[in-house]
Amino acid sequence: MDALKLTGIRKSFGATEVLHGIDLTAKEGEFVIFVGPSGCGKSTLLRIIAGLEDASAGTVEIAGAVVNTTPPAKRGIAMVFQTYALYPHLTVKGNMSLGMKQAGAPKAEIEEHVAAASKMLGLDALLERRPAELSGGQRQRVAIGRAVVREPKLFLFDEPLSNLDAALRVNTRLEIARLHRELSATMVYVTHDQIEAMTLADRIVVMNAGRIEQIGTPMELYNRPDNLFVAGFIGSPQMNFIPAEALGGAAGETIGIRPEHMNVDLNGGELECEVVHIEQLGADTNLYLKNAQAGDLTVRLFGERYFAPGSRVFVTFDAAKRHLFDAGGRAIR
Amino acid sequence: MTTARSTLGNTIAAHAILIAYTLVALFPVFLIVINAFKSRRDIFGEPLALPTPESFTLVGFETVTRQGDFLLYFQNSFIVTVVSLAFVLLFGAMAAFALSEYRFRGNPLMALYLALGIMIPIRLGTVAILEMMVATGLVNTLTALILVYTAQGLPLSIFILSEFMRTVSDDLKNAGRIDGLSEYRIFFTLVLPLVRPAMATVAVFTMIPIWNDLWFPLILAPAETTKTVTLGAQVFIGQFVTNWNAVLAALTLAILPVLVLYLVFSRQLIRGITSGAVK
User: Fold this and answer.
1) Are B181 and B112 in contact (CB under 8 A)?
2) Domain B69-274 belongs to what topology?
3) What is the pLDDT of residues A48-81, one digit of tens each?
4) What would the pLDDT profile of B243-265 be if each residue is shown by its tens digit?
5) Above 0.95 for ipTM, yes or no?
6) Between chains, do B180 and A85 touch, taking CB under 8 Å as contact?
7) pTM flag (> 0.90)
8) Bond from prior residue into A237 cis (ω within 30 degrees of 0)
9) Chain A residues touching residue B176 (CB < 8 angstroms)
10) CB-CB under 8 Å, A52 with B174
């Protein structure tokens, strides 16, 4: 049985259609991440799954039941929001127990669930505090705890890490990954950050302009992108796109090569380039190059390397790691 | 005190302007209060002098308490003000929530319609209102005043509150929906506490004109049992003789309740005015 099944989901606001027919299934226990640039419809899709927004067409099934007309509270879901959305007038404990209380669960059971969730997330010391007395990281842990308490069939995360600073983001990411392992629950997660998507997901759904561009495991998307958009969106620094003509290929086609699959040589190679800028990060060195035919290129070298800006170098490609795209941007395999 | 952001001169100038404004604003109130405690001759002889042992008298207050039923007038004013205020805040907030929260056909038109009252003075409709009250038998009841004041206060209240409600986080309301709170619980327990400063602002702006109004009590409820304080004070103003002691005493007493209400709301009010500017 699929934990989540979307069939032909469309959504329009007035005359503008923001989702153009989304089909998707998530298996029991799977961690699915929607990723895409802002305005691609990923948050709207999540809100449709949650029942906070009605789809203009299509069906949403959660655990085998069509829930199109079921109110959010009865869908067996829990949601974690970007802005934490804790109830300011309730304590941490009150925040965590409200959902079950509303559903009419017996008091002892609520206590038990809150205690378990609080232990899992290390919130025991904070239970009597109010949200205003918590730091950002603590608030997001409470928000996650509030979701865990309800033991939902489906967890929904709406950019939960976006409001945290870089160090906390990594910690909370690990926390969410651990939670997924321990609860083996189905999770749907929305982010615009491809690193979060790559590190957490079992399967990534890349969206653009209201359409699904590609669905696959992180490594499938990295190694075999279906089109130029996915190739450019997944991977950092971004994949280099070179007109095939510059390398003696057919006109109109594009060759894609990731910065980490290129190397530089001082004596000879496929393309002669000028060094524009160099970024030394310690473990890696990013080299920004310019070539008259191929345009701007980024090369990621491992370890400490140095090339003076303005000097000339030759670029070599790892031939096996080349991607070829046709004039319409589809991958040629 | 010269710091990076202010110089001594600027600080003095700013305070001088503010103090001058405060004096100007408080002067009429001050004048009413000091003269209420003076004899008639001294009121006209030296209107700006403070009451001295020779000029001090409570005759005005005695007249007020003896003539007419001022306790009843106060009670009437209080009932009308508090009930109208409660209705304005409750219905205003509910309408504002609906306008800011839900997408429905005609929402902008409805918002415009509800805010139109800000630009059209309700007094233009006095004749029609009076006819309506006569037809429904509400003349000389406090209900008539409460209905009119509620209608008068709603446009501004809806306009201000809907702007504020737009700033309440969507995520919070959605979290409530997912936890199974009804729209009413979301409105009363999540949204209202967050717009409390705005509510206080609306309360003050609504309350003062109602308390001070003479027009509608005079037209809709001039009976002895439904007189408000402002109308009650008019009995001392005659065409030929005005009992200034009594008028000033009545006004002094009339200032007190509204002052108390203002103090109750003012702490919230300051937050309301500055919110948005500083987070």
Assistant:
1) no
2) MetI-like fold (1.10.3720)
3) 999 999 999 999 999 999 999 999 999 999 999 9
4) 888 888 888 888 888 788 878 87
5) no
6) no
7) no
8) yes
9) 87
10) yes
